[in-house]
Amino acid sequence: NSFCTLLVERAEPSPRRKPLPLSAARVCVQYIDCSDPSSLLHTVTTKNMATSTTVEDELKEKRADYKRRMERVREREENLKRDRQALQERLVQFYKYIQDNEIKRLRATKKANAEEAAKKERFETIGRLAKQMEALEHEKHAARERYLKYSKYERYLNDVLHDNDGEEYLEARDIISRYRTLDENRNVLKKRKTQLERLLAESKVQLSVQQQRSKNEQVDLQNQVNELQNTLEALQRTYKRKQDQLELSITHKSSTTKTIGQVRMACQNLYDCCQRMNRDNNVRVAREDAQDDMLAQLQFIGDCLGDYQFVIQEWRRRGRAAAGGAPAATTAPALGTTVKDDAAGTRR
């Protein structure tokens, strides 16, 4: 019964699988009566035949399906081959396109780099030329300033040559030679100053090293430096005070010398006037040493002024006597004559 039930279940179509195609063996199996035991062998045989037929049919179908699938597989392989070949061709074209683009990119990059380098070089050239132009402008202004300064100096030299009374400098090159000599001396002094500054710097370095080696020596040297500095300041103050005193003394002596010179000139002028008056009147003769001796000149001038004053007083007295009715003298005493005054009794 279970076998018949199995056959019946197999004969019934399953909803989850596709039913097999209906054959003659299947039709026979559907109408087998399972209640008859004698027909069991026949049923099994029929079943085996039906099964083999079914299997053969399935195999045929599977072969046909396999052939169809293989054909489709072949077609797909051919299509795949064609597609692969086309893809390879496209890949080759793509590679060629990439290579062309890479070559173009390299060319463009090289061109861009060259343009960038040229642009940078142009900018650098422009900057360098701008700096050169600025430097040339500075040189131009400096040359113009030097030209103006030298032109002023040339005018000054010409004025010096024009106003040169002592004929110390006959030509401009004499002044230039003198200037060059002074400039060379100044350069020598500058070199000497530089050498002394270098020696001073070396001495300071040695002093610093020595100060780092010993603190005691550093303190002692610092104290010595302070003492020397104080001494230097004291000497500078003393020097300044002495210099001020010297300048004051020089100023005073200059003023005194100027005053003495003015007095000597005035005395000489008065002496010359008195000499001229005496020569005109042929009265008094000056001393031989009065030409260089200022005291003798002053004495001579005093005598002359006394005589002149006496003459004035005498003329005034006679004028008053004439106005009072007294007889007037016909002549006046000459300069240098000996006159006895009744009141003073002095020789003029």
UniProtKB/TrEMBL annotation:
<feature type="compositionally biased region" description="Low complexity">
    <location>
        <begin position="322"/>
        <end position="338"/>
    </location>
</feature>
<dbReference type="InterPro" id="IPR025252">
    <property type="entry name" value="DUF4200"/>
</dbReference>
<feature type="coiled-coil region">
    <location>
        <begin position="56"/>
        <end position="90"/>
    </location>
</feature>
<feature type="compositionally biased region" description="Basic and acidic residues">
    <location>
        <begin position="339"/>
        <end position="348"/>
    </location>
</feature>
<dbReference type="GO" id="GO:0005856">
    <property type="term" value="C:cytoskeleton"/>
</dbReference>
<keyword id="KW-0175">Coiled coil</keyword>
<feature type="domain" description="DUF4200">
    <location>
        <begin position="54"/>
        <end position="161"/>
    </location>
</feature>
<feature type="region of interest" description="Disordered">
    <location>
        <begin position="322"/>
        <end position="348"/>
    </location>
</feature>
<protein>
    <recommendedName>
        <fullName>DUF4200 domain-containing protein</fullName>
    </recommendedName>
</protein>
<dbReference type="Pfam" id="PF13863">
    <property type="entry name" value="DUF4200"/>
</dbReference>
<feature type="coiled-coil region">
    <location>
        <begin position="179"/>
        <end position="245"/>
    </location>
</feature>
<dbReference type="InterPro" id="IPR051147">
    <property type="entry name" value="CFAP_domain-containing"/>
</dbReference>
